[in-house]
Automatic annotation (TrEMBL):
Cofactor(s) annotated in UniProt: Zn(2+)
Naturally occurring in which organism (per UniProt): Streptomyces liangshanensis
Positions that bind Zn(2+) 2: D104, E134
Gene3D superfamilies membership: Aldolase class I
Gene Ontology MF: a single term: zinc ion binding
Manner of cofactor binding, per the entry note: Binds 2 Zn(2+) ions per subunit. One is catalytic and the other provides a structural contribution.
InterPro entries with a match to the protein in the record: Aldolase_TIM, Class_II_FBP_aldolase, FBA_II
Stored Pfam families: F_bP_aldolase (PF01116)
GO process annotations (BP): carbohydrate metabolic process
Protein's recorded name: Class II fructose-bisphosphate aldolase
Active site: D82 (proton donor)
Keywords in alphabetical order: Metal-binding, Zinc
Amino acid sequence: MSVVPLTDILSGAFKERYGVPAINVFNDLTLEAVLAAAVENSSPLIVQTSVKTVKSIGSDVLYTMWTSMTAGIEVPVTLHLDHCPEREVITECLDRGWNSVLFDASHLPVEENMRQTVEVVAEARRHGAHVEGEIESITGVEDGVGSDAAAAQQDLDVALEFLDTTHVDVFAPAIGNAHGSYRKTPVLDFQRVSDLVAARSIPIALHGGSGMSDEQFRDLIGRGCAKVNISTALKETFMKSSLAFLESAAEKRKWDPPSLFRSVRQDVVDLAGSLMTVFGSAGRAR
């Protein structure tokens, strides 16, 4: 239990075909709330931080929050740096103690992406950490990283060469998914996940999870998407919950910040718990 390597969490999920929520947090309240949801639902959990969050709060403060809130926790959790194209930030987070990183070099030619990813994997191994890799950008901008241009898929052989060369622990393919809120139900390439898993048996990271249907989640998880990223849904829950409470407070002319924090926290806990149920990770902590 407690803080464990990313692969410890994903190995069981991949084998038994359930998904582990990988939730982007951005302050102390959201971090504490998703951890509380994991304990309440007896679920493993991947806590993610964006480059923007690392820079705005600071890696020292973030990691101190993490170690304080996970001390003695009774479910397996891990700390992951999401979509990071900046090598210096990866080094900073690995040095502080992050358990894994996503080196996002999808903007580079595949050969250069592979060369640098090999270096990042070697660096991570020196820290006992793990690496998620990708060769295609996921459509949409998340915390200042990415592009709204539609992501082009590489051939399967190119993806397999990337996996064989870099030895990343998790792979994030473009399958028609996108960051941010979907304006309509996305059309996803389910078969591509099956083809990758059949060829290399590697856990797949599903990005752009906010807004997918329960049926899409379950189908993709059943094919090997063991890591399911959620960011936009948490941000929307946090801000809409805050807005609703503040509008009510304004009407009542009653201003009590602790009550605001409790209300928003509960909505975040409820959201995270519902994801754990849908993804099948609830009750899996052991």
